[in-house]
Automatic annotation (TrEMBL):
<dbReference type="InterPro" id="IPR012910">
    <property type="entry name" value="Plug_dom"/>
</dbReference>
<dbReference type="Pfam" id="PF00593">
    <property type="entry name" value="TonB_dep_Rec_b-barrel"/>
</dbReference>
<feature type="domain" description="TonB-dependent receptor-like beta-barrel">
    <location>
        <begin position="205"/>
        <end position="623"/>
    </location>
</feature>
<dbReference type="GO" id="GO:0044718">
    <property type="term" value="P:siderophore transmembrane transport"/>
</dbReference>
<dbReference type="Pfam" id="PF07715">
    <property type="entry name" value="Plug"/>
</dbReference>
<keyword id="KW-0812">Transmembrane</keyword>
<feature type="domain" description="TonB-dependent receptor plug">
    <location>
        <begin position="41"/>
        <end position="144"/>
    </location>
</feature>
<dbReference type="InterPro" id="IPR039426">
    <property type="entry name" value="TonB-dep_rcpt-like"/>
</dbReference>
<dbReference type="InterPro" id="IPR036942">
    <property type="entry name" value="Beta-barrel_TonB_sf"/>
</dbReference>
<keyword id="KW-0798">TonB box</keyword>
<keyword id="KW-0998">Cell outer membrane</keyword>
<dbReference type="InterPro" id="IPR000531">
    <property type="entry name" value="Beta-barrel_TonB"/>
</dbReference>
<dbReference type="GO" id="GO:0015344">
    <property type="term" value="F:siderophore uptake transmembrane transporter activity"/>
</dbReference>
<keyword id="KW-0472">Membrane</keyword>
<comment type="similarity">
    <text>Belongs to the TonB-dependent receptor family.</text>
</comment>
<keyword id="KW-0675">Receptor</keyword>
<dbReference type="InterPro" id="IPR037066">
    <property type="entry name" value="Plug_dom_sf"/>
</dbReference>
Amino acid sequence: MNKIKVLCLFALVFSATTFAQDTLQEVNLKANERSLKQLKKPAANTYVMTKKELLKAACCNLAESFDTNPVIDVAFADALTGARQIKMLGLTSPYLTITEENIPSVRGASQAFGLSFTPGTWIQSIQITKGAGSVVNGFESISGQINTELLKPFEAERFFVNFYGSSDARFELNTHISQTLSQRWKSLLLVHGNARLVQNDMNHDGFLDNPTGQQVNILNRYQYTNNEKGVVGFFTFRYLNDQKIAGQKDFRDHAGFLHDGAWGSEINTQRFDASTKVGYVFPDMPFQSIGFQNAFSYHNQEGFYGLNQYGISQTNFYSNLIFNSIISNTLNKFATGLSFNFDQYGETVRVPNFVANPHRIDTSVGAFFEYTYDNTDDFSVVAGARVDYHNRLGVFATPRLHARYNPWEGGTLRVSAGRGKRIANIFAENQQFLASNRIWNVASGNGEIYGLDPEIAWNYGFSYSQSFKLFKRSANIGADIYRTDFQQQVVIDPYRANELSVQMLQGDSFVNAVQLDFSINILTHLNLRTSYKYYDMKTDFASGANQRPLQAKHRFFVNGEFSTHEHENGSRWKFDATYNWLGSQVLPTTTDLPQRSAAFGTLNTQVTRVFSKVFEVYGGIENATNFRQPQVISGANDPFGNNFDASVVYGPVFGRMYYAGLRFKIN
């Protein structure tokens, strides 16, 4: 009975959703299972990236954790700051719900750089859900959800250290220390530091390919477990200080905007987080549990991009109370509860044609109910709805549905539908355009946020996967078809030279996303994973109907992994390679860039030598094909002129990059 209690507790506290509970039960995979797995049992279309997958590349932070993954698309947001932008089903991260242990994390002020604030070594696993997420996690999700599970004190090594260095002068140090405080209490201290110390300008345009700077990131968490009383709790505290300097090589001034006429950018961010999660399983009813999540964060970013100035602060408090139980029997389950969210924003905006210091407070209170039917064999459905009151958006409902059916052995069919609603923070979410001299024309309407209305969209999805034997080897094929329809959308039109039009959608906006997958276990320790994606994305911009820019219509992905047999002392070799091919992309209209990009491919490789169960070294090459976007900055010769624009980035800036590192751990 105690074991059942513990499993239910961990599913409650870590997942907070019924179908995510099934996901986490599946995470306990055997060592020879695949590192990226599409789960068979949940009603939602869910993938799990294990620690093994994260070690296949230089996953220095969460933003860099998806390079070996065909589910998420990764690209650079601009040519200067080094910020990476992720996309799912063709939509950027603001349309995703990104959570950390099911507590909202990357949102609001942290949209531009927040993915780089979670070091890769801190991550235990990542769950990716396509389509509208669970109503338990809020009303904002439109195209999917990414949930990161951090290391747990009772599961982490006693001591861990990771050194990393690369040819672009980026160096990192990660140290983890866990300590047993008592039979029921254990702590874990995670310390991360990174710095880029050398200026790089591989394309000789006078601008740094990557920003210099440093980051200090410290997290301390405590775990309490009482199996006899059915209680488990986590208490987490974090502090971050991140500094970036970008621009021309001659720029040095930390105190002002200009130095000898050089264009520069400086972005300094400080952040503090604190969260608690407590779960309780009723002793005589292991199917019934209650969980309570609370989180506080303060985020402050100050900086400038040449003559453009932008700063934002956000104070957030989030609370979620969840009750799980059954109706009559364990085939019928439900989750219900209440949630509260408070955001206080303060911004400083100084851009061409728009100067303001907008401040606002957003609060929302919501109630949700999610019903799950699962016959544990071939059919499950999760139907949920929530009703929220928002001080700016009023009262509104959010319905969502996920269903799974197994028509025959190895086959899994899924459908989903759901509605999402969100506030667009137009400056925080589009900081790449600050690295330009475009004139901002923000339409003045009757909306509550910058005069704009909230964004509303429906997402519909169909998915099928089939496992089978091919030449006596395990194989899998899959097909996903999703459509996102916007009823309301804040449209930023970059197609007019030297101008950026921001207004509400007047017409249609949709995204059709198709993905075809094939994977096979060629040999005992050799796996191959391939994927093809097709995106049909159209929006009625102010300048006319057009395909969304900087989005390849066709993408092709191949990943191969091979490892030698593991010896008794744990020693072995591991080899990984990932090839990404992107088709031609439409580029925003500028004075000296082409209207479309050329298709290109990149190859990343890594070799790991495991000497024992406590020590290993690794090395690799990113962008081994050495592809570089021919011109990444428009008007680089006159950075204070009207034509300067560093936001049109469709490919790598730096070129080929080598890296190496080591890991040492004591269990």
